[in-house]
Amino acid sequence: MTDKRPLLRAIFDAAVAAAHPDVILSAHLPAPPKGRIICLAAGKGAAAMAAAAEAHYLDTLKLDPERLTGIATTRHGHGVPTRRIRVVEAGHPVPDEAGMKGADDTLALAATATADDLLLVLITGGGSANWTAPVAGITFQQKQQLNRALLRSGAVIGEINTVRKHLSRIKGGRLARAGQKAEILSLAISDVPHDDPAVIASGPTVPDTTTLADARAIVAKYKLTVDDAVTAALNDAGNESVKPNDPAFARATFKLIARPKESLDAAAQIARDAGYEVIDLGADLEGEAREVAAEHAAMALKAQAEGRKIAIVSGGELTVTVTGNGRGGPNQEYALALVDAFKDTTGIVALAGDTDGADGGAGSASDPAGALLDAETFAAMHAQKLDPIASLKNNDATTFFTATGDLLQTGPTLTNVNDVRVILVG
């Protein structure tokens, strides 16, 4: 069998390239206002978006630098050089003190906006963790603890963000309320299934229709143990998010500039060009990683039995209910489940990766983006007597793929349009 790793990587790289700020942002940037451009950015691509905005306004339009200011809060290791917009590197997926300071400074700067200013809000996935501003009565440590519990619970991103929004001074429309004197334009790269603006970075500049009651129900659904202060906050009507028709949105516009579907389309085209029949399962998949992997493996094995040459591509954001004490993320767990499903066959290869360059992990820029598997994976597994089922039970995909040499290592990609998964058969 010929080496399919370059093709797998080309498919993944095409998805990333289709959503990079350097490629997509400038076409959506408006003309300068009478006053200042206040750029407020958050997420894994925040610094890259800020730098692209600077290049457009300072270099292409020759804007007076004094009229451009801002703060971009991004994940540790995802910063890039900027000139006028200050970059803050902060924790993700678990918030840290730097993110809290960045959020406080962001709210303070938004509050200085006047009617002549433009509040340019640039959002990518990861903004929810980067912008952490606990409501009164909640300590940073309490919110950090709740965030960890949510990430381990198996809750989907919309549920996680519903809880976050009701314990925050910046999410759920509150940033728009802080800067409502200005015109507000939010440009977002979507990292959530169905591209809901209220879910992307927990909707800091858009109305929120979820409620405190919804947040309480999610805590109960996943049987989360929370501090009394968190319970009290979720029962405090003053912590309700900003609803539609609020004056905060009178001059606010939200625009999606990149979607997971567009990146998945770019990935699928590479597979087609390589001669594969593409089975596109869509960009909005959710569910338990190993269960989704089992479904996709069954499709692949059926196609192989029929002698078809296919590429099964999918996006979305899978979850892992953590019961072990290993290391990994949804994409690695999906790939590990495929290893178990394909261990007795040949001619099937696969890759699963997060387009931001980090799948689970400890919040380091060196975290793996995911994993891939082919004949070399199985050879290494057999030679080292590795047990994929035991690794799955311990949620320890990283250790398994470190041993086989199959971690997908991309480093920060400076964008985020969710996961890309591909299985090549034949």
UniProtKB/TrEMBL annotation:
Gene Ontology terms, MF aspect: kinase activity
The keyword Translocase appears for this protein: no
SUPFAM superfamilies on file: GckA/TtuD-like (SSF82544)
Keywords of this entry: Kinase, Transferase
Pfam families in the record: DUF4147, MOFRL
Domain MOFRL: 311-419
Alphabetized InterPro entries for the sequence: GK-like_C_sf, GK_N_sf, MOFRL, MOFRL_assoc_dom, MOFRL_protein
Domain MOFRL-associated, first and last residues per copy: 8-234
Protein name: Glycerate kinase
